[in-house]
Amino acid sequence: EIVLTQSPGTLSLSPGERATLSCRASQSVSSIYLAWYQQKFGQAPRLLIYGASSRATGIPDRFSGSGSGTDFTLTISRLEPEDFAVYYCLQYGSSPFLYTFGQGTKLEIK
Amino acid sequence: EVQLVQSGAEVKKPGESLKISCKAFGYSFTNYWIGWVRQMPGKGLEWVGIIWPDDSDTRYSPSFQGQVIISVDKSISTAYLQWSSLKASDTAMYYCARPRTTGATDWFDPWGQGTLVTVSS
User: Fold this and answer.
1) Residues 17 to 76 of A: which have CB under 8 A from any B CB?
2) How many CB atoms lie within 10 A of CB A75?
3) pLDDT tens digits, one per residue of B33-69
């Protein structure tokens, strides 16, 4: 079973700053099997990044993903007010847990 | 437009049964897996299971095996998540979601709007 650990649990930043969110896997994950989601209160998750670094349709280019092996990163280059939310990484494709989510990082306004 | 539309919120008592639904629009229902994800109040996302609608091949998370049943009705492009005897700990938002690629269990996109299940005596 692959466990995904996200850090930090909460990140307090101001609009305009750069955010760096981490997702660490307990064993090596193929980069094509790692995605990132944004979830705002009361809404379904929204896909941001798939294949570790490919932006989903309509996602602003201030969002970028990187990493390989066991360490993956979501970077938001300049925070906009609408970016404050909870972010989850997702690993897919391994057995028996076909899908595993990280526990989430809450990005809050400082 | 590809869309997943879920049934409305439910309030049930412990021990009752429940079946919630997820209706698919805008794509060939039998050509994509469809999955379920749980989010307990104030908590993160957990994968429940996934089903291949064409033959009902179903894979459950070991954490949910034996606790829920996932099924489909191909004739109306609808997937279901059901419980035979609800517990208070089943209280959560449940999302259905479809993998991006036909025939693959890859990243989920799109998602349904969620169904809130509340179990309370």
Assistant:
1) 33, 35, 37, 39, 44-45, 47, 50, 56
2) 14
3) 999 999 999 999 999 999 999 999 999 999 999 999 9
